Amino acid sequence: MSTPELVTVTIDGRRAEVAKGTGLVETALQAGVEIPVFCYEPRLGPPIGACRMCLVEIEGMPKLQAGCTLTAQDGMAVRTAATSEKAAEGQNATLEFILVNHPLDCPVCDKGGECPLQDLTFRYGPGNTRMIFPKRTFEKPIPISPTIALDRERCILCYRCTRFSESVAGDGQLVARNRGAQSAIATFEDEPYRAPFSGNVIELCPVGALTSTQYRFEARPWEIQNVPTVCAMCPVGCNVSATTREGKVKRIVSRNHPEVDEGWLCDKGRFAHSHLRAEDRITEPLLRVRRRGFSPIGWDQALDEAERLLRGAGSRIVTALSGSETVEGAYGLARLLRGGLGAHSAVLPEEAGHALDAYRLPLSAIRDAELVVVVGDDPVSERAPIVDLWIRAAQRGGAELVTAGPSGTLLAAPGSAAQVCRDLAAPGSEVGRRLRESARAILIWSGQGGQGGAHLAALARALGFDGKEGCGAFHLPATPNGRGVAAAWAAASDEEAENPEPISLLIVSGDEAASDPNVRALAERAEAVLAITMFHALAVGWADLVLPATSYLERDGTTMNLEGRLQRLRRAVMPPAPDELAWLSQLAERFGIALPPYPALVFEELSPVAFGGLAFGEVGERAALPPRAEAAPLPPLESAPPPPTSDGHYLQLLRYRPLFSGAAVERVPELQFQRPPREVELSADDAERRRISSGDEVSVRSNGTSTALRARLDRRLAPGVVRIAEEHAGDLHALVEVVKA
Amino acid sequence: MDVLRLTSLLAELPTPRTSLLDNLGRIRREVGPITAELSDALADHMNIRHGEVHEVKSFYSFLEVPVDALRVCTGPVCDCFGARALLARTQEHAPPDATVLEVPCLGHCELAPVATRGDTILPFGRDEPVLHRANEGPSLGLGQADGTLADYERRGGLELLRSLPSPERILAELKASGLAGYGGAGFPTGLKWEAIAAEPEPRYVIVNADEGEPGTIKDRYVMELRPHLLLEGTLLAMRFARATEGFVYLREEYATARDRLARAIGEFRAAGLLDGLSLELVVGAGAYICGEETAMLESMEGRRGMPRLKPPYPSRFGYLGRPTLINNVETLAHIPAILRAGGERWPRGRLWSVTGAVREPGCFEAPLDVTPRRLIEEYAGGASDEIGAIVPGGAASGILPPAALDVPLTREALREWGAGPGSAGLQVFPRRYPPLRLLGETMRFFAEESCQKCTPCRIGNRALHHICAELEHGEAAMPRPQVEEWLDAMAATSICGLGQGAPIPVRNAFRLWPELFAPLGSA
Fold it and tell me: Which of A343, A397, B333, B480 could bridge to B520 as Cys pair (CB 3.0-4.6 Å)?
């Protein structure tokens, strides 16, 4: 890369040396001068210069200029309101204009105390108010979705929210309506703003016009604490702050990690936190009585019971892990079970290899790509939502996106991603040729299949990605910390596991494992089940002993995201029961295993084996990405037998796990509207042949099971395939009939 | 809604984003007002998100209104001649299913008060034939209408197209002529053309026919009377700029001009004058701001008509990001005369709309330094009433007392009165029409037509309108020094000419009609 040309700019007499083309707002900041802004937000695309707050005087230009729209040029002399009377007058007037219609209801506004309008009025505004006539009034607030309220009186029409909706998230649902005095922000046709990233507009809003219904009247900025942590709801690991008040998490806000999330969050990460206080949250150990009953027991008794179960089972234990445990929690379990009992058998959430570490890049590198190829069955936004925003950013920058899958730009049968990789590597592939020629190409695996990383690595190698800094590959796993958990489990012992039959004890660690049908099936073969879960409904009916689990917001430790970046979780609130490490430490002691109850100490123990001796304190608040690994020999690739395909009558069922699903989402009332409707997606071909149109009630059947769903036509879906969200697909088999009801 | 018609129409509609406004207009005409369903159907057809089409359609005043709606103009001249009474009467007598709409200015001020039903003009609110009153000026020759291309040719038309002067000569003549844009901003045309020639191809040419300033009807006269003349000027611009694509952005209300231009374009095409070139009519949908050249570009690209930040100017970054030459209708119509006569010998003049309290309102070509009195007496048949106030050049040009009747209408002379010639829309108001009401109506216009992009224009115009309304009741909404600060701020901080120009009539009235502002206190 060439070094950018440096230019010198003078701002209020201070010199700043920046790369040519740097925004004037950023340049000023570097010189220690603030240029105040409302509408300016570089993450939203080109500046629009609408609010006029950033007016500055530029030497040689007769009129005041919107500073946010200018970039640094050599020799530029800028005078902000601090030194230019003209700029100060303009800025004063702008603030006064903005406040003409603003209701100034700060005492009852959630934004009060952390409001840019309040802050900038205080810093730059006139000292007194001269308002004499009536303000524009609207009904307020109106819900634009169950999670967001809109107060049009407070709105200053900076168009940040509509620009986000249109350009960044690409959902286009938030719009500026009408012209002239009638103009206002609204949702399209007054439908709820139903989109995976909607909550970002709350943070973008520089006034209190868009507020969170969850946070409404919950706290004031001076009585809250913001705990810097990481979201552990998906494998991206967005950096967040958990706002707490009186021991409760009140909201989640972004904490911009420019390489990971660029300050965006999905609505699951933002709003799902209230599951911590779900009604069926388990807060004390439970012992099974009768078939479906539980009796709460004390911790001493619970540990006695656990010890009894463990001793009885010995090495004939299978541990089902969720992939949402912390590295330290998983290591604690492994130390107890592998070290204390020789029970090496585990069901890891998915196979996570290291093959892709040789093609590692930060997620932000996707934005700079010129060609992005996604293979796999699942939409990126359902598996790792923020990755979808990075891809959109790349597309805005002119990148081409190729998706190879059942509804991709290149149609590929479900379950054929490995084959797609081989095809792309083959000499005749046109996309493959362009990937080979590109210096900035990205591969992404978005779908099931544990060996996805390895297949992608083989493709990357075949395409000559080795040694190309701008080319990389990402595997989107299904779990937030699958890699970390696998590493922790491996760090505790390197003995081979033997699968016990029968299983004496099945340990179910976490809610994802507890809701996994495969784990449920395993339980049929187990004599006893010990479940570590957060919610009653997940334990009832099959667990003999239940120990309360904690959420990522309630524990300290580390977690590894899909890039292979190790990040720090910080406890935002105390869990309602001791966390996993606390009781694991006591239980381990009964088996002669010394396991500290503190994540920092546990990490120190496992780090030399798993993370090259990295110190806990060095993980940092904005974790760095380890460098690329040396290219290593690839693991042997297995070819799974292809799933049965459609014969025209029977259609191939493609299940997907929607972003808005899972135990946490199910327990958040405000997120219910985001969950997938009871729908089956059909290709236009298949629908036409069955005389089905969008909205029709249909019956989806296979081998004796049938379920009633509403049909939706998907123009991009491959013929012969139907897609149903996991939670609505139930017991349906791989091939289904679809009949109009 | 006619579903069958929609289906067959959709199949015909082009899908590039630049066709959005046109498509919306056609659906409105051929199917019905754009409802949510129609908007969604079009969005699906064009593969645009529903919300974006929704945003665009709600930006314009007419897309959600039936084509045959009765539109009553309440612009200043119409207001002076009884538009409110006409509106009230119309609303009272309209059948229950009819839509009656109050609109800011229909651009037919010489027929005040005026209304339209669909494409039909209703002078004085009645069904009467529309007449043009124009003089046979030396440059434009509007005294005689050209019915066909042959008529035009008989008067010496098309010669220039057949033997095109060299680009150097064109530039030299334009510069020598001193021609400056007649749309209102007055930028020297020669410099504009020179700038476009320095930019890389491909380039576009756009004719700004979105005349919308209350009191300004001159471009409509040119298009209705001499459409071929405009087209020759346009083709000269295209040939000069080596642009193969040209557009005429026309306001929706100008139905007759639309027909005549469309027919003339057809004649040009049939005569082979458009070989290798494309010239398209783009019809607006009711948004004054789209006359601002960058807002027009946004509108043509299928977005809300909000002005862009300048620089970059359209000559560098215009339609679809390409260098674009944008000229006003009248400006282009003068160019054939300039090239024929030579810049030095071209009889410098411009076309004045003269409306209001005159006996023969119309459009007259007259020298640049003509006085209002001469325009009224020598061209427009004299005043029909005792003159109380004149507006020299369009809504943003200022309100002058009768004492200004003998001021030459040049930029320099008017500057001394705090006014400007603007778009040359001279409006004459009788003494019975209160100047404060005129000012209030003017500010109402700006408040309603502000696109709402930038803060000063959005808030300032609403506030100024409110101040005027209060003053009519003898009340002061804010002290005078504050108003003056706000005027300065609007002029200094607004993005485009609308917000920068709107303070002019108020500031000007402070100076020339101080007694109106007594309740506000002293300066």
Answer: B480
